[in-house]
Amino acid sequence: MLIGDYKATYAADEAIFRSWPVRYGFAAMVAGLVLLPFAANSFIVFLATQVAIYTVAITGLNILTGYTGLISLGHGALVGVGAYATAILANWLGVPFWVVIPMAVAVTAGVGLMFGLPSLRIRGLYLTIATLAASFIIVFVIEHWGSVTNGDSGITLAPASVFGIDLVSDPQKYALIVPIAVLAVLFAQNLFRTRIGRAFIAIRDSDYSAEIIGVGLTRYKLLAFGLGSAYAGLAGSLWAYNFLALLPTQFELQLSIIFLAALVVGGSARTLGPVFGAVFVILIPEMLKWVFGFLTPFNPTIVEYTAPANTIAYGLLIIVFMIFEPMGLAAIWTRIWRYINLWPFSP
Amino acid sequence: MARRNRGPRLFRRPQSGVLAIVTTASAPLLRAEGIELSFGGVAALKSVSLDVQPGGITALIGPNGAGKTSLFNVISGFHKADAGRLIFDGTDFTNLATHKRAALGMARTFQNISLFPGMTVLDNIKLGAHTHLKTGVLAAGLFWGPARREETELRAQIEREIIDFLEIDHIRKTPVSMLPYGLQKRVELGRALAMRPKLLLLDEPVAGMNREETEDMARFILDLQEEWGVTVLLVEHDMSMVMDISDHVVVLNFGEKIAEGPPQEMQENPAVIEAYLGAAQDAA
């Protein structure tokens, strides 16, 4: 029984890890992440790394869309900007990854700010359409600016290297990417414990009252775009160092939609929403592959339908979540916690 | 109700308490001069002038559509006046951006509550203190150190000054969308107080409230004036409350100021009676 766990100081009451189960739960999760590469096979480690990259990207979208209420359909393209900036800068300058990543993040934040400028004049659906245009413009530029991006044939980069060791195997890349992702999620969580994050939510809930209490809309909307894009840039950078080869088609509209789907399913405006969402969108195709593998002996042609089945599954699940759990998996998680908190009393 | 004993006060008092109330001859805290506002062909405000004396409670009354809320919207920056000047504490703020008016020391509540529904009571009130906080993005994300200190201090201040004062300690972590109307109004007042205003603009603070809630709110407003030294400008239709608590009443009708003076005088003013009830000969 955890109720009655009262705090004597306001600092303790405001803490992220408010109670010992949350504290130990987080510690156990970190321990699990550390042990995973030793316990699991290379494919699981590869999937976990991808979940981490998606988590960073979706956390950025969460800041922009979930918390500030500015729906973006250009987030996948911004991840592409981050990935291409990483590859191009690494190839041109030949500097190590820890120099390239902040540079790519800055470039992406700048590009994001530029596409965020319309948000000062338009909002709602119109802004969403403007971000949709951003998505097409960015992918078009990547495809056609051949002298820099290498166009349709894609671009490659040298692996990140730590103390002369090239990070090429899955566990090595996992060791680079997952800690960065965990820190990025914690950074976002902290943001929403302070005035900055509260101002974002205020703009989402009622932009006029936000102005009355002294939140400058121009400044904070652009800040939301800048931060969201910086996260997209970080995700793109990690993506580049994970795959070491990029194609412009990877960052088309479908990626943006997958991110939005993940945010809805995971739970928007919640710290854990992007984490759940990322796990979800990475695992769905794998689970479908497994199901199709099981069905192949009965009907060998069924494999051809794997790709459309993915799309159908995403769409179906978004609808199911919208109807039955609009707050996403994070809300279910909260309910489980509440039950544990009140046990053995009925909730 | 007996005065509650509270700990030391951290909120900066805008004026030195009672002293400011006594010196009524001082310059007005808020002055509106010849405010004109029209929507298309409809003149909502016709050369309205208004002085709000520091430390007092000024009430703005008038029949529906008289322009009370329009004047509030001009003062808080939602509408831009077609002509006229606005002066707050000696500063001309006629052309100041809406969000910068908060820093001058003005706070307002809305007729139709305008809280942030997705947030808890505590977060809503914390938002009121936005302009008084300094944490930047990097400090916020790292949290440890200055941001944490600022947040903890803010929480302690809000608990001591506002949550205790407004008697809302039992709902501090409840999302505002789950609260009944009367409590939402109180939380909105709390958010305005967290701005540490010199002037509080209250747009129909007791509209739609039952008698008990109205009395609670009237008591809060009086306590605010006495203990915090806040100047209050309020729009209200509840005449018994207006007459009980205000020091000065301004009456608007069809966008024009038709009378102003002490509440007792306004009750007997023929122009005011006509505005509310129609001319005597019509009634006969």
Structure description:
The complex is a heterodimer of chains A (347) and B (284). With 347 residues, chain A is mainly alpha-helical. Chain A has a domain of 236 residues. Chain A is 72% helix and 2% strand. Chain A has 15 helices and four strands. Chain A has a two-stranded antiparallel sheet with strand order 1-4. Chain A has a two-stranded antiparallel sheet with strand order 2-3. The longest helix of chain A is centred in the middle third of the chain and has 27 residues. Chain A is globular and about 60 Å long. Chain B has two domains: 168 residues, 3-Layer(aba) Sandwich (Rossmann fold); 82 residues, no CATH class. Chain B is 39% helix and 21% strand. Chain B contains twelve helices and ten strands. In chain B, the strands form two sheets. Chain B has a six-stranded mixed beta sheet, with helices on both faces. Chain B has a four-stranded antiparallel beta sheet with strand order 2-1-4-5, with helices on one face. The longest helix of chain B is centred in the middle third of the chain and has 18 residues. Chain B starts with 17 loop residues before the first helix and ends with a helix. The N terminus of chain B is likely disordered. At the A-B interface, α1, α8, α9, α10 and α11 of A face α3, α4, α5 and α6 of B.
